[in-house]
Amino acid sequence: MLREVRMVAEVLGNGSPFAVLTAVVAPAMLTNASAVLSLATSNRLARVVDRHRAVAPRVVALDQGHPEHAAWSQQMLRLEQRAQFLVKALRSIYAALGLFAGSTLLSVIGGLGSFYGSALGYRIVALVALVAGALAVIELMMGSVFMVRETRLAVQNLAAEAQLAHPEHR
Q1: CA atoms 127, 128, 132, 138: torsion sign
Q2: Are 109 and 125 in contact (CB under 8 A)?
């Protein structure tokens, strides 16, 4: 890892304004991607809440002995699990967003430190920016894992609801 930090320091330390721009663009683009992902995840959470509101009256209306009660109750449980996964995903994505934004800002600060000849300060800031970027990528990956798990539950609910709608089931 020290070798990578030295390599980044050498690239940024060459005095070229394009070197600083290059170091800033990657975290800035990942910040934008994380923001779009957070919006999509928030929309999915809203859809889960809406679906929960639609399923809950069906569960309440059916007697526990009714053949469809268990299926609708199971669907509600999966909706609650989906909501939990989405909240965890949002938490990770927001953390990634903040870390990517911080990494971008630190890259700019490091570039300015390099320009003004603060070698030690620049290297410390570059290292912190690199660590922030690495943590952001880990958080983004965790958010993606939660999204995959949520998607699996959504597909299970679709299959269960299709089975309930099938004429043979009735």
Answers
A1: positive
A2: yes
CA distance 20 to 28: 12
Which tens digits make up the pLDDT trace of 32-56?
888 999 999 999 999 999 999 999 9
pLDDT of res. 158: 92
- List, in sequence order, the alpha helices (H) in 13-118: 17-61, 69-115
Cα–Cα distance measured from residue 32 to residue 124, given in angstroms and rounded to the nearest whole number: 26
How far apart are alpha carbons 120 and 123 in whole angstroms? 5
The pair of structure tokens assigned to 106 is: 């630190």
| Number of neighbours of residue 22 by Cβ within 10 angstroms | 14
The answer to whether the beta carbons of residues 45 and 81 sit under 8 Å apart is: no
What are the CA-CA distances from residue 55 to residues 63, 67, 68, 86 (Å)? 14, 16, 12, 19
CB atoms inside a 10 Å sphere around CB 143: 26
Reported pTM: 0.77
C-beta of residue 75 within 8 angstroms of C-beta of residue 125: no
Output the DSSP codes for 36-59.
Answer: HHHHHHHHHHHHHHHHHHHHHHHH
The whole-angstrom distance between residue 37's C-alpha and the CA centroid of its chain comes to 6
Tokens linked to 45: 């959470």
